[in-house]
Amino acid sequence: MSTELSPRERLLLTTETMLRESGMAGTGIKEVVARSGSPIGSLYHYFPGGKTQLVVEALGRHAERFPRLAERFLDGSKSAATALRAWFDTAADEFESRGADKGCAVGAVSLDVRATDHEIRRACEVAFDDWISTIADRLPLRTERDRRSFATATVAAFEGAFVLARATKSGEPFRHAGRWLSLALVAQTTPKSERKPTSRKRR
CA 189 to CA 139: how far, in whole Å? Predict the structure, then answer.
């Protein structure tokens, strides 16, 4: 890891990477310190709250990237349906090119949180809500309820794609999810008068 980064930055970056690889259960303090190349004393200096504070801040850093991606793809330069498919196709390509072994840190940690992990669970909840709101604001659906509902389905598809992609070591789950989300959005935004009639075979 680059020594140009401060010990604090190295600790956060290492924690984020390990959360993506192994979730919270597989991210131990000793391993974070060893991989980051930072002295153990610096961890408790910068993160007096220990592992909880470290995980919460690492999740915050990771979560900030998702809204930027949503804004990049859903920027109005193309239809939202086309943008969604491009976004998921890009996620598939990047997942494969980066080793096909890393998931979403927020999703991974959400599966690990215990009833007593209030701060960490709240960090995950805030991240997901922010992602849903960012997507919903850029969807061409008529009502706020529909926009948030579709945005929730999009985030759920993204997280589910990570699970299947890691299991299969392939980005195809992202491509499938993006295709069907795109088709669903087209169906929801195309006026009934413009929809092609479905042909039915006579029995």
Answer: 10
